[in-house]
Amino acid sequence: MSCAVPAAAAGGSALPRSAAAEGSQQSHEEDDRKVRRREKNRVAAQRSRKKQTQKADKLHEEYESLEQENTSLKREIGKLTDEMKHLSQVLKDHEKICPLLHCTMNFVTVPRPDALASCLPR
Fold first, then answer.
1. Burial class (CB in 10 A: 0-12, 13-18, 19+), 93
2. Global pTM?
3. Are 103 and 119 a contacting pair, CB within 8 Å?
4. Contacts of 103 by beta carbon, 8 Å cutoff, 6+ apart
């Protein structure tokens, strides 16, 4: 009687694997892992670049919008400054001829409606 156990009964395959074949299998699996990892990294990098570009585009749009708003506000400041100058000149011109400013009754402590009535032309 022989004590040798057949390879199939021992849980292995009928043909024994050589160390070189197992090394080649591991090398192939490592290569596949590297390829998958590189592909995954490439896709992640593309996604990151796309996101960065979108963010830059959004910032550029916001910049242009703010530039337009700034220009509009500067125009409004110019108009309001011109209006203020005009109204200041109108006030100065009016002060020269205003009967209320030149009325002597303005310095007397009398209720205002009477003072106005006495200073206005009749």
1. exposed
2. 0.50
3. yes
4. 115, 118, 119
DSSP helix/strand/coil, 104:
helix
Q: Which 3 state secondary structure label does DSSP give 74?
A: helix
Which residue bears the tokens 């106005």? Answer: 116
Query: How far, in Å, CA of 121 to CA of 102, rounded?
Result: 12
User: Tokens at residue 27, please?
Assistant: 């090398």
Contacts of 105 (CB under 8 A, 6+ apart): 114, 115, 118, 119
Given its phi and psi angles, is residue 37 left (phi above 0), alpha (psi -120 to 50 degrees) or beta?
A: alpha
**Interval 78-106: pLDDT, tens:** 999 999 999 999 999 999 998 888 776 65
